[in-house]
Amino acid sequence: xxxxxxxxxxxxxxxxxxxxxxxxxxxxxxxxxxxxxxxxxxxxxxxxxxxxxxxxxxxxxxxxxxxxxxxxxxxxxxxxxxxxxxxxxxxxxxxxxxxxxxxxxxxxxxxxxxxxxxxxxxxxxxxxxxxxxxxxxxxxxxxxxxxxxxxxxxxxxxxxxxxxxxxxxxxxxxxxxxxxxxxxxxxxxxxxxxxxxxxxxxxxxxxxxxxxxxxxxxxxxxxxxxxxxxxxxxxxxxxxxxxxxxxxxxxxxxxxxxxxxxx
Length: 263
Hints:
Helices cover 25% and strands 27% of the residues. It has helices at residues 11-27, 49-58, 76-79, 130-144, 157-167, 213-220; strands spanning 2-6, 8-9, 33-37, 62-64, 100-105, 108-116, 148-153, 173-177, 187-188, 194-196, 201-204, 235-244, 251-260.
């Protein structure tokens, strides 16, 4: 199974680039499965039902999310009614949506799991330990398919690396999201798990993680009244492509991708 996992899409600039590139990938049958983190697809903050449907129409098979979905509370029920749009598994049970899904592609079944870290993360949405929750659910998922991809949405590098060791050989891939900065540590573990600490973002790179620099700098200087504004220039897509043996569930390759808007 050939999989493309696209980093956190940020606002209209990121959405437009995704629409162009994913269309091309689908047309050319480059990947069996395309996943994307969509938690910042709505203007850089949250996700809407309309935006999620667009990502599906562009060709994204699975949409994972994270803490910023709370920025569009009024959209949550509608968003998570859409097939294969998931939220972190370790959110409290009353939160809308579900934390994992199984997709069938060309006769192969693949499970995608969404987790959220707890270190340096906001108090809302409320979450419990991702280590405990995945432990409680992993056997059920493994009974369905050996191909398991995990989006670990977390701030702390150490927490993501700890999860890599915790799930080593138990899942096919562990892909870090949230920081919007692509790391250079992609690897295949000895037990066959593809890993990267953060896949990066898809959006405007002439920015501070997708936003105009000045309001963020102003906030660091103590001005808390300025609102963040979505940047627009130097749009790029960060992603990782990896291959998984569909019989064993072991990953066999992983590579980082960065594509500019005019490529």
